[in-house]
Amino acid sequence: MNFKSAKASCNGDYVTVNASNEGCVADMEAISKLITPIYTMHVLEPNCGITSQKPNERKLQQRSLIENTKHFPSGLGKKAAYHCHDYMYVLSEIWSNNESVREALHVREGTKGHWVRCNISGLAYTKVVKSSVPYQRNLTQTGLRALIYSGDHDMSIPHVGTQEWINSLNLTVDDTWRAWYTDAQVSGYTQRFTNDDFSLTFATVKGAGHVAIEFRPRECYAMIKRWFASFPL
């Protein structure tokens, strides 16, 4: 019901919502309230909120993880302590700032400060291009090959949105929607598009989230290996 209402009140524009459109604002707030508790990078994973934490909050989380490790001597217990997928991001920061690791990586003392996985403060920019589709359509006039893949459990950039973007490029369907396999098991679904010498292969990765290779490394390796060899998926 929320989507139907938003579709009617927002006129299909869910990004640049007009503040004076009270119906659209209310619908978008209702939808946001429903989605916020979900881990959008993989809808089946626990939502721990680590990637959105502020630096001081991350430090507290790191300290907590280090302390937890001491209480789980081996095996399943230690694995259970890190049940959230995002924990590995925090652990990577702990690992990378360990003095013995920095020494092994030959990081010269004094040349680098505290390492962070994603320095959000350095990503400040002003959006001046509303849509890059015209540039992408220009690429379809070349002889390039492209592979686009999406985890089918990713809500941050859902595969249905990627498919809508591909449809906007006005390409010709060269290979219809079908399953692709790894070790005789369905690994996702794929479709191929062309425009003269240009080709675009789209694939979903079954069970994968936003960074598909993190969740399904074996399947992603098989997919990319076939594509580089110009074999069908």
TrEMBL record:
Keywords: Glycoprotein, Signal. It comes from the Eukaryota. GO terms for molecular function: acyltransferase activity, transferring groups other than amino-acyl groups; serine-type carboxypeptidase activity. GO terms for biological process: proteolysis; secondary metabolic process. The keyword S-adenosyl-L-methionine does not apply. Coiled coil: none annotated. Pfam families: Peptidase_S10. InterPro entries: AB_hydrolase_fold, Peptidase_S10. Belongs to the peptidase S10 family. This is Serine carboxypeptidase-like 52. The lineage of its organism: Eukaryota, Viridiplantae, Streptophyta, Embryophyta, Tracheophyta.
